[in-house]
Amino acid sequence: MSQPIPRPAGVPILGNIFDVNPSNPWASLNALAEKHGEIFQLKILGKTMVFVAGMELAEEMCDEKRFRKFVGGPIVEIRAAVHDSLFTAYDGEESWGIAHRIMAPYLQPDALADLVGPMRDTALELMAVWKVSTGKIVPWRDLARLDLETITLTLMGRKLGGLSGEENPMIQAMEDSTSEAMRRPTRPGILNWLLYGGKFKASNARMREYAESLVRYRHDNPTEKHDLLWGLLNDKDPQTGRGLTASQVIDEIVTMPIGSSTSPCLLAMAMLFLQRNPTVMAKARKEIEAVVGGGEIRHEHISQLRYVDAVISETLRLASPAPGFNIEPIPSEDKTPVTLGGGRYQVAHDQAMIIILSGVNRDPVAFDDPAEFRPERWMGGDEGGRGSGSGTGRGFASGGVMLGFGAWLCWLFC
User: Fold this and answer.
1) Assigned superfamily of 84-320+361-413
2) Distances (CA, A) of 56 to 52, 355, 372, 379
3) pTM (2 decimals)?
4) I want to staple 53 with a disulfide (CB 3.0 to 4.6 A). Which of 150, 283, 325, 356 is the partner?
């Protein structure tokens, strides 16, 4: 027999509206996860939301035969900027499959080999900027510059020159749009329209202008190089024979830096964890010296840097830059309630749920001493994205993170 899902007491009519700080909702949700454990629910203005913070339940919900990605909340809001793009498409929208099949060949690990040189050289350019800097270095902000510079150069064929000097407006536009998309579901719609709609539209427009400028540049400077932008503009989906419309090309160009915008936070936190853990730093240095030596980091080195990769994985566990993701049951005709945890819990057939990664990744049932930074946990392990929305750019993203981190380590040690 199932047991009730825990829920804070709340207040009449409004429910748990005061249990979530609209200015920082994930801090509130992380605190609730620590208090209530593997699962809890909130009811706000009559709407039920279920949150999962335990490893066992999270793994169960990653079963693609029973559950699927849920497009709701902030993801729906960001559709105002990128419409039915790779990470915002609803389940069953044909546009996702078309874009995925066109883009995937340019983003797989094999394609990374041709991009390693520009990626590495761009990272080393930032290291050179840091070396001569006389002011305070803010790593995550500079790494955001690096991320945008790398994506624009390697996938879109244009060098922005934005590692120093004035920051490219795309960076602030992404920050403004994504942070506002997080907050909008927590406010009444009338407030979003009256008080916040103008700024949200403006930041979305700036992001699309970034993409439009890249298309204009390509038209003015044609190339035979078959990079991702070439594919977006010219390739046809092998299954349907259809290409992307002009608007869809802009959608997917904007999607790339948004999807990669968590990488700077990941790299900055990995640097911080190394600084705080001298033993881990020494092991990483030993591996870098053994694999790379005194030369440049190359594509073949990436798979050999197993301990450095484990440092990245452990950083993801303790400081995941993506706080969670949304899941819903696959619809059933009989609308039978869905059971979780071997029948311990029961939710409605159409109940959307949010997996809180901070809770899952610190679950003491899954991890010994969960608060301890210990990369050795991941030696020989298998981790990564889940589901249909996770794989398109995973090879590019993970390779880019490893190259950026490896270049920084080489700069420190070699």
Assistant:
1) Cytochrome P450 (1.10.630.10)
2) 10, 11, 20, 21
3) 0.89
4) 356
